Amino acid sequence: MNLAVFCSGKGTNLQAIINAIRKGEIEARIALVISDRKDAYALRRAKDAGIKAVFVNPKDFSCKRDFEVRLISYLKEERVELVVLAGFMRILSPFFVREYKHRILNIHPSLLPAFKGSRNAVRDALEYGVKITGVTVHFVDEQVDNGPIILQKAVEVSEEDSEESLRERIQQKEHLLYPLAIKLVVEGRIRMEGRRVRIDSLPCSG
Ligand code: GRF
To answer: Which atom belonging to ligand 1 lies closest to the Cα atom of 108?
Structure first.
């Protein structure tokens, strides 16, 4: 299966997916990495891994739809079947989401629906004082952080946690959870019942 990964920043999740594919854990190929930021380190990671990496500048387009039309044309060119959002700091419009219905995944650093839509869900969870937060991988639908949940993993918040230390532990979980969720989707081991996602035989994870 051909994947595209959309990023805006460091790309540590991208790296985890690249590594899982290299190890043969996911039978898929990253056909394309797209960033909306020229300086995203994710672009470097993609190039280092020999993956086609493109910067698409939203400012080059007069409206969001034209930007997304360009994204879709890249995806079609590379015959992409699954779009993986990994720290992509843009909300995709219903136009884009409809084009790839149930074929877009996102990872969010909280236990959704808590801290939905937050640009800094780790800080917000810490400031709110929750004792448990975590990671969610979900399908993308037409509302923000709302689509059917594929996998979640809890992370305990300790009294000593700073935003950095909590983020670090959340990211460690992300790097296990995202490749696993992608594997399940790629292997067709997911069934949808309304917004409930049923998984056929979940393998062990960290
Ligand atoms: C992750 O924490 C993810 O949950 C959020 O954005 C961050 C991306 O990190 N959506 P990275 O670029 O993969 O390192």
So the answer is: 4
If one counts the domains in the chain, the total is: 1
Residue nearest (by alpha carbon) to ligand 1 atom 12: 11
Tell me whether residue 114 is in a domain.
Answer: yes
Q: Give the type of residue at 70.
A: R
Determine, yes or no, domain membership for 68: yes
The answer as to whether 197 is a domain residue is: no
Q: What is the CB < 6 Å shell around ligand 1?
A: 7, 9-14, 86-87, 107-109, 171, 174
CATH number of the domain at 178, please. Answer: 3.40.50.170
Give the residue carrying structure tokens 């532990």.
Answer: 169
CA of 69 to the centre of ligand 1 (A): 24
Q: For a pocket test of ligand 1, which of 7, 10, 13, 178 has the largest count of ligand atoms closer than 8 A to its C-beta?
A: 13
Determine the pLDDT at residue 203: 64
Burial of residue 198, with CB atoms counted within 10 A of its CB: 0-12 exposed, 13-18 middle, 19 or more buried? exposed
- Decide: 112 and 33 in contact? Cβ < 8 Å: no
Q: What per-residue confidence (pLDDT) applies to 204?
A: 62
Walking along the chain (206 residues) 10 residues at a time, the average pLDDT comes out as 98 98 98 98 98 98 97 98 97 97 97 95 97 98 96 98 98 98 96 93 63
Domain that holds residue 31: 2-189
